[in-house]
Specification:
Structural class: alpha/beta
Radius of gyration: 19 Å
CATH architecture: Alpha-Beta Barrel
CATH topology: TIM Barrel
Pfam family, one: Bac_luciferase
InterPro entries: Luciferase-like_dom, Luciferase-like_sf, SsuD_RutA_monooxygenase
GO molecular function: oxidoreductase activity
Protein name: LLM class flavin-dependent oxidoreductase
Helix content: 40-55%
Number of helices: 11
Number of domains: 1
Shape: globular
Strand order of the largest sheet: 1-2-3-5-8-9-10-12
Enzyme class: oxidoreductase
Oligomer: single chain
């Protein structure tokens, strides 16, 4: 069976500052353009305890749903261990209802100790909290009633009304790079989202490992979604000029946020190393890079085009280039 055309997602910048246009105006403008350009998803992440400001992801997703008609609405990813499962299942189900069935719910374990503390959880609890949360979200989305007495949550004859529009439920993604995360994703979810800094040399092995694990009984498949920095311009030098300085600023911040993570050093690498694991450059280069990920086994690529500090005009230019010049060549 021939592989379906590569799908693209736009990872939207939710960082805020005092000079920002009000009410997510930049994000709305980008997402409307991405929908017109043929992107498959708008993708949001979440962050807490960020003093310059960061828009809350779930309410932002609902806001973007109200301004769009067709584009998929995805998260990559919500920190599942810090959420009360019934609240999370009900809120996400309602976004699927309000959007007419466009939700993909992506989760992560989380890595910042201060974010766990903020929500009354501990990092050492995160795996058991994650698994119980996803089990309950899946069951509440698909079962008439749920009774559950677990380590963190007890329910008696709980149910959601309305349940999600999608049947049997919205798809679930999960991020993570170690073997335990890949196995957990295969068992409990429907797609694996890579890290933005996963090396290209590592991807074929990680994809093969993920696909080798047994699917859980409730799984809807095994999508592979590669997350990458992205910028398309007439020349590679123009792409670098637009992206490098704001991306460096973001990576400096990540180096501090990920001080407890094994991949913190990857955010201090030279531009050439960043470029080698990204979709950055001329249209021809971006087509080639996306094609290469398809050959590796990716079903979709999520592009982070606008780091904090990039002008809106530059972000719109790259979205338009991917839609008008890159995507037609991929589908062709």
């Amino acid at each position: 069976m021939p592989k379906r055309p590569m799908r693209l997602g736009l990872y939207v910048n939710l960082y805020a500052d005092k000079a920002e246009r009000p009410r997510l105006a930049d994000a709305v403008e980008q997402v409307i353009l991405a929908e017109q350009a043929g992107f498959d998803w708008v993708v949001l992440g979440e962050r807490h305890l960020h003093r310059p400001g960061y828009h809350e992801a779930i309410t932002s997703l609902a806001y973007l749903a109200a301004h769009t008609e067709r584009i998929g609405l995805a998260t990559a990813g919500l920190i599942a261990p810090v959420y009360q499962p019934v609240w999370l299942a009900e809120t996400l189900a309602h976004i699927d209802v309000l959007s007419g069935g466009r939700l993909t719910a992506g989760f992560v374990l989380g890595y910042r100790p201060e974010e766990f503390t903020l929500y009354g959880a501990q990092p050492r609890e995160r795996v058991s909290r994650f698994e119980e949360c996803l089990e309950l979200v899946t069951r509440l989305w698909t079962e008439e009633e749920v009774t559950h007495h677990g380590r963190w949550t007890s329910l008696d004859e709980a149910f959601l009304s309305p349940r999600p529009v999608q049947s049997p439920r919205p798809r679930i993604w999960n991020g993570g790079r170690v073997s335990a995360a890949l196995e957990r994703t295969a068992r409990m979810c429907d797609g694996w989202t890579t890290s933005f800094n996963e090396l290209d040399s590592e991807l074929p092995g990680k994809i093969a490992e993920y696909l080798s694990y047994p699917r859980g009984a409730a799984s809807l498949g095994s999508e592979v979604i590669v997350c990458r920095e992205g910028y398309a311009a007439p020349t590679s030098q123009q792409a670098r000029s637009a992206l490098e300085a704001p991306l460096r600023g973001l990576y400096d911040a990540y180096g501090d946020w990920k001080r407890t993570s094994a991949d913190a050093a990857r955010y201090a690498q030279p531009w050439e190393d960043i470029e080698a694991r990204s979709v950055i450059g001329s249209v021809d280069q971006c087509v080639q890079r996306l094609g290469a990920y398809g050959e590796m086994g990716a079903d979709g690529v999520v592009l982070r085009i606008q780091p904090p500090g990039m002008p809106q005009t530059d972000a719109l230019s790259a979205i338009e280039a991917f839609g008008s010049e890159v995507l037609p060549r991929l589908s062709g």
